[in-house]
Fold this sequence. Notes:
The chain has eight helices and no strands. The chain has 162 residues and is mostly helical. It has one domain: NusB-like (N-utilizing Substance Protein B Homolog, Chain A, Orthogonal Bundle), CATH 1.10.940. The longest helix is centred in the first third of the chain and has 18 residues, at 12-29. The radius of gyration is 15 Å and the shape is globular. The relative contact order is 0.15. Residues 1-5 have low confidence and may be disordered.
Amino acid sequence: MIDTRKNIETRPRTLSRIAAVQAIFQWEQGDEKSASHLIEQFLLYRTNKKADYNEGKIHIGNKTLFSEVVKKVIQNGTQIDQYLSEALPDEWPLNRLDPVLRALLRAGSAELMNPKEPPTRVVINEYIDVAHSFFDGDESRMVNGVLDTVARRLRSEEQAIV
């Protein structure tokens, strides 16, 4: 369910990230291995200009961002999972995480694989907001810590400047 407290409905890039998390979750749960087919099917059946979250429909304001994140996760899944496994505490292996949280961390890590854009702080803050749209607990704190650790590995030059 979308958290309206953060005005997410008016933020097209955030909505695109939420949709990417949903598509990545769908990819992990299903048999579809083709990024292009998954994206096509998601855009066809799970989106609508007038979002109806109760019907599982979402508006995607930035389809390019949505597609890029989903493709990067599917194409680089093993590498992303390695980054996440190294960033997670030993008592929380990746396969033990809630599948939506796992999809969210994969999406955030995929964006951090781009060397400079968007800035690290933007990526982390956006995925903290996405976490708030799915969870009511401490998951957003975990997202912050894990993505910060992944960013330090992937964007060490930017981290030195910050």
